[in-house]
Design a protein that fits this description.
The structure holds two protein chains of two kinds. The mean pLDDT of chain A is 90. In chain A, helix 3 crosses helix 4, helix 3 packs parallel to helix 5 and helix 4 packs across helix 5. Chain A has seven helices and ten strands. A six-stranded mixed beta sheet of chain A has the order 6-7-8-3-9-10, with helices on both faces. Chain A has a four-stranded antiparallel beta sheet with strand order 2-1-4-5. In chain A, 34% of the residues lie in helices and 27% in strands. Chain A has two domains: 154 residues, P-loop containing nucleotide triphosphate hydrolases (Rossmann fold); 71 residues. Chain B is mostly helical. Chain B has one domain. Chain B contains nine helices and no strands. The chains are: A alpha/beta, B mainly alpha. The interface between A and B is medium-sized, with 28 and 26 residues.
Chain lengths: 241, 225
């Protein structure tokens, strides 16, 4: 089995919202060049886990580390190496695609020359829409623009919450290709998803969250779509009981 | 240099978004116009009565339109979860505060310039001789309002009752700014020497310095929630 340097390391993570225990001792690692898909029913803590790793939420107990940096005490160091795509695309509707990229790259202290930004838009097939306001973009186009923004920041770790939501078949295939390239460059991907289809092919491991815990953490390669469905049903129903 | 660039890009973004959407500018202008019209209608042509209340009327217009506009400063960040991305952007978050403050200041000054022009028209007052002094009071007063307003707007942006909470928090803190600006404006309109109200100027400048420094030091914590 291939070993990976751990880029994301989560140990004994607990998160309470009031008296509700959303995460109850989650431990997980994602290595360099590896993608882990988080599966689980609504409310199982997938988004909460991503937010803690992204430094947007503090854990009640336990630790989360990205490239060895503690997500609470060294949040700034963590933020400099990760990229997040969550439910919102992190773009301003009243700016054009190019202006959005210029804004975020400048704010992150990165070079924002037009050639570099246009090349990033070209990578996501949005160069023809560079001067069009994002308000007119479809969900898929906004998602591609968000990916162009992330690519400019060159993160080592990608956190994706439902990355395929709103994308058509072509968009899904395109995103899969991008993620494969990212993995090949040594990046780590942690993605929360409800998909059991071809999108899961990007994942090297599946982690099923149920009852606030990692109910199953297994390599994906040997599993077909039916196997994933069966495992998911078995572990989530078991946790519900 | 990077800090200044980051602050400038935030101000640029807010002003471009506002120029295109015109959401805040239109609301502020119509609100200020309605306010001036009501005051003009209520106070009538009595010159003595007008002279006594004009500084208060002018600043009431500025502060109410300011509260209306500043309350919206961070709402644009809620769309598409841009708030999250602001948090995740590496670097000193106070640059975001400086940018937000600069954009709010610019927007408020544009509205105030238009309101001032309408004010001279509605109340038939000649402001030309006192314009440089008045402009300084307005800039200092608006800086104080925008400095504390941008901070409280960030604090209340994620709160459900923000429309209620924002003015409740803001207005009591603005008392030193309001006292300083109204007294300095009164002295200017009555053609009194500015030295006669030096202590009000000092209060105004001190309040500005305190508000801006507090904003710079605490914005990071407020943004993190």
């Amino acid at each position: 089995m291939m070993t990976h340097e751990a880029l994301i390391e989560v140990v004994g993570l607990v998160r309470l919202f009031g008296t509700t225990r959303v995460l109850d001792g989650v431990s997980l690692t994602v290595g360099s060049g590896e993608a882990v898909a988080l599966l689980g029913p609504n409310g199982s803590g997938k988004s909460t886990l991503l937010k803690i790793v992204a430094t947007l939420l503090r854990p009640t107990r336990g630790t989360a580390r990205v490239l060895g940096h503690d997500c609470v005490r060294q949040a700034e160091a963590v933020r400099s190496v990760l990229g997040l795509i969550a439910h919102g695309a992190h773009v301003y509707d009243d700016l054009t695609a190019l202006e959005n990229l210029r804004f975020w790259t400048t704010l992150s202290g990165l070079p924002a020359d037009r050639e570099r930004l246009m090349a990033a838009l070209g990578d996501v097939a949005l160069e023809r829409h560079a001067d069009v306001r994002v308000r007119t973009f479809s969900v898929g186009m906004k998602r591609r623009l968000a990916l162009a923004r992330l690519a400019l920041a060159r993160p080592r770790v990608l956190l994706l919450d439902e990355p395929f939501a709103g994308l058509d078949q072509r968009g899904r295939k395109w995103l899969q290709g991008r993620l494969e390239t990212f993995k090949a460059s040594g990046g780590a991907v942690l993605m929360a998803t409800h998909s059991f289809g071809r999108e899961l092919e990007i994942a090297d491991r599946l982690a099923i969250l149920a009852g606030g815990r990692v109910a199953l953490d297994t390599p994906r390669a040997a599993l077909g779509a039916d196997d994933v469905q069966r495992l998911y049903a078995a572990h989530t129903e078991e946790a519900a009981l | 240099m990077s800090y200044a660039r980051r602050a400038l890009i935030v101000a640029w973004k807010d002003l471009v978004v506002e120029r295109r959407s015109k959401e805040t500018l239109n609301a502020l202008l119509f609100f200020s116009l309605a306010l001036l019209f009501v005051f003009q209608f209520t106070l009538g042509p009595d010159r003595e009565r007008l002279a006594a209340v004009l500084p208060g009327v002018l600043w009431l217009g500025f502060i109410l339109s300011g509260v209306l506009g500043l309350g919206r400063t961070f709402l644009v960040e809620r769309d598409n979860d841009c708030w999250e991305a602001l948090l995740l952007a590496p670097g000193d978050k106070s640059a975001v505060y400086v940018g937000k403050l600069a954009a709010s200041l610019a927007l408020m000054l544009v509205v105030e310039a238009i309101v001032l022009a309408l004010f001279t028209l509605f109340f038939n007052v000649d402001l030309w001789p006192v314009l440089p002094g008045l402009a300084l009071v307005i800039v200092l007063g608006t800086l104080g309002i925008a400095a504390v307003g941008a901070l409280f707007a960030a604090m209340t942006a994620q709160v459900r009752t923000r429309e209620l909470l924002f003015p409740v928090l803001l207005l009591p803190v603005l008392v030193p700014v309001l006292l300083g600006t109204v007294k300095a404006t009164e002295a200017l309109l009555l053609r009194e020497p500015l030295t006669s109200v030096a202590h009000w100027w000092q209060l105004l400048v001190a309040a500005d310095v305190v508000y801006v420094v507090v904003g710079l030091l605490t914005f990071d914590v407020i943004l993190e929630g």
